[in-house]
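Methods — Computational structure assignment.
A single polypeptide chain was analysed. Its primary sequence is given first, followed by the predicted tertiary structure written as structure tokens.
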Amino acid sequence: MTIHMSLGITILMIPLVLIGLSFSIFYHVTEPAIAQPSIYDSNLTTDLIVDGLASPTSIAFLDSNNILLLEKEGSVRLISNGQMQPEPVIQLQGVQSNNER
């Protein structure tokens, strides 16, 4: 009788363990990822060049004074001498920007 009872308890415990593992895996997968700095060097500094961007995705340095910046919805912006120009250089049409690349 002891063998049958402990086998029954073991069989009943299996679903509870599986539910616990499923919850544990789901909880860890759904935690938000938070970026952390990966380089600690006191010689490095950051400077704000321009703000008010709408989801920048790419950047190209044309020369020491001019930068082209691509925004997710298709705007190509020019930053000249640290100032973002008021109008895009070009606005790409038909860009699917509602999902990640």
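Note: The longest helix spans residues 2-29.
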